[in-house]
Amino acid sequence: MADLIYIPNKIQYAINGLGAVKSNILIGGSLPEKFVPNVNVSYSCFSGKEKFFLNLNRRSIDIVDQKESVQDGQVSIVTGNETDIFYTVEDKFKWDIQFKIKPANLILEWDLLHSEGVYFFYQDTLENEYLRYKDGCDSLDEYLDVHHRPDDIVGSYAVFCNRKNALRAKNRSYIVNYFAGKLGHITRPFVLDSQGKRAWCVLNISENKLRISLPSTFMENASYPVRLDPVLGYDNIGGTLYGTDGIAKASLLNVDNSAQVAPSNGGPTTDVYFYLDDQGGSDWDKEVDAGIYNDSGGSPNNVLDSTTKTSSFISPGWNFVTVNVQIVSGNTYYPAFAWAFGNGNARYDGVPTQASGHKTGAPTLPDPWNGSSSPFAFSNYLSYVEAGGNAPTGTINGPLVGPLGGPI
Question: Would you say residue 408 lies in a domain?
Fold first, then answer.
């Protein structure tokens, strides 16, 4: 459990440096006279300053003279028959609500504010996803063999920003690292009664509101107290597993020359990062081919360079290869990887973003590219070192691509 820091002048509690994207959480509002059920999440992305934020405020709770309590790293406040509880566990921040009796309103609502460039992408059922995109599969059964979406990811929201990739100073320290553009994940919440029975809730994010609908039959028949368990995860890997052998995937990186871009060029080499997940198997005896494509009319074209890694250099988690590609500002690049693991899986989130996919018989990047588009954001990105001069103060601008190829 992360350290909880009390901020007395504002009656807030801070939890800093969480997860890969270095999120900082403030529990409580800015009022000096009382604690309020408000949470602000700020993402520094290794830069040392805020790049993005989101804020959740449960305005329906009327705080008069109630006082918060702190115990075992958890902050809680009781209002009537409800207790709001704030804490972290593993790679997740949790805002639980415990109901002493059945609440009169089964739809709970939070105000949701966020910085420009933060997006919430709904993770539908795989059955519905298949109806929109077949991914080269001839049947739903085949699709379900390739894709696996855990129960808490179905009906959840992946939290993305409009930037991705990493920029390092000449001493290899990070100037900024957005990874693959994912900031976190709001998983599907559930309710749990005192007898251990549980049921899923319905999560909806729209019009600057986050709403959770409690299951009416369960809440009517539950043994109280009942605890609602919503989760804001700050892991930066995709929530869905993709496990077919011999698939090459590429995702878009655009390095433009706007005022927000720091360097004009990168160094002589670039690292291509990709995430592979081991689901308990031992078949890590195959290869991964990773590299970078150039652009032709908004699509991958030719492989600029690629490197093959064998099993002795690959482990579950983030891996990378180094290729001889110099990033030039104003150009578009596509980091790509191909793999063939019997028990290994890539990770992705369903997004209205067009990545590219191509089925191959071996873990090799096709050159030239001849793949199809897919609405998946895979966990892979580029990392490169600035070329010349001192470390700049700007950032890389790597916009995601919308459903028709334009900015979101």
Answer: no
